[in-house]
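Standup notes, protein team

Yesterday: finished cleaning the Paludibaculum fermentans set.
Today: 50S ribosomal protein L11 methyltransferase structure.
Blockers: none.

Input for 50S ribosomal protein L11 methyltransferase:
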Amino acid sequence: MYSLFLECPEQDAELLSSELWEEGASGIQEESLPGARCQLRAWFDDPTGLLQRFAPFQPRIEADQEIDWEQASRQAWQPFEIGKKLYLAPEWDEDPTPRGRMRLTIHPGQALGTGDHPATQLCLEALEKHLPPAAVVLDVGAGTGILMAAAALLGARHVAGCDIEYDSIAVAYRNLLTDGLPPHVFAGSTRAVRSQSVDLLVANINAVTHEALAAEYARVARRCLILSGFPDRHAGRVRQAMLGHGFELAETIEKNEWVCLVLWNEDNS
């Protein structure tokens, strides 16, 4: 077994991880570095051609001892608390849920959305604070379905999710079913959603996509937007895109250079 080490800007980590999986990686670990950068460590059985393939990312290869992947994965994913109400625990964890907490099961795997990333944690905190009672919620870019599951736990009346990646939708569908939650997910975009049909829209995707979908967000969501997935230097762009559609900034939450914007349409509150 061999480890391939790469360095990249944080905003490129998701795409680079996808490329590593496509090259046959058997596991990937992400570590934050100073200056909004990160290091990716990916494990391969055969390192042939990897240095050339990932030359722009300062590649380095080391030979590893044999690893028990199942045990290593279980040790890497420990339960943790988010906000005042949620307790995130991997699916194999059998420890009791702390008093006063709601258990949100995470399903570590290839798709993003295990609650480990700061942007996901920011969305979870924002949902806890701003989810209206008995709300209808739409998760745009549903990923593993973790934000859908959280919204359901926190009291949403109906939760749906969409993603343009069919593989992500398949993962979300399976996870929600496993957790005993309705898997209302579909492969596609917000264009398939009726105007003014949701109370709260949450999206944990990059700033460029937020800007491109600003008009769609405003068309679909009646009251509240929770937008994350971008570093603080892009927050102004996302905020400005939504101000032009009647949404006012209610709160900015930050963690490790990542930002979550909570915006409300006061006319529909």
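Follow-up from PR in the comments: The chain has nine helices and 14 strands.
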